[in-house]
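Hi P.,

Sorry for the delay on this. The queue was packed all week, but I finally got your sequence through. Input first:
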Amino acid sequence: MITLRKSGERRHATKGGQETWRSFDSENPSDPLRAGFRTLESLSEEGLAPGAGFSFQPPNDVEILTYVWKGALIQEDSSGGNQVVEVGECSRASARSGSMHRTVNGSLTDDAHVFQCCFTPDRSSLKTQSDKKRFPMAERRGVLRLILSPDGRNASLRLRQDAKLYSSLLDPGHHVIHELSSGRAAWLQVLSGRIQLIDEVLSAGDGASFVQEPAVSLTALEPSEILLFDLG
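Then the structure:
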């Protein structure tokens, strides 16, 4: 079964210099995805004005993945960790319950645009830590490039959960297929462009879940960028 979540269905909020679109609406009790999808707890798109930022204090241990789509971020945590994550880079952080994490647009003149998601970890009492990696555009063009995995295979970032995340940049006509093993599900998020998904056209901000499907198969109608989550 494939279920769409169109861009306009996301919760949209603005606060100061921060603009947020949340694919899973935790504040809406009628949203069937208010608690996320499988082990994917949250998925948000964030626009940050120059110098703007936001803080996050998780009530439970969580794994955080941040993809900088535009600009550069400064990330800090209560353990003393501090790093700059630039455009095209991904950072992965293990966050302990109650720890404080702050993300700030590192520029005082330019906007930043980021995508951030959280996963339920496969163990408790995580040590707060973070790392980052750049995945060149050439490695992601026309293919599904693994950027996050439980074992760090293919030089991906390591996640403490049975989940994999792929990134792809597609030119018009590019077609990709990702097979799903029995019992697994997938979430597709379109970051830019337009793609053909069977008889539906998905645009920037649209998402779709795949449950009891043998594969995810899609074709780019224009220059597009997607994220694909393979979830246990």
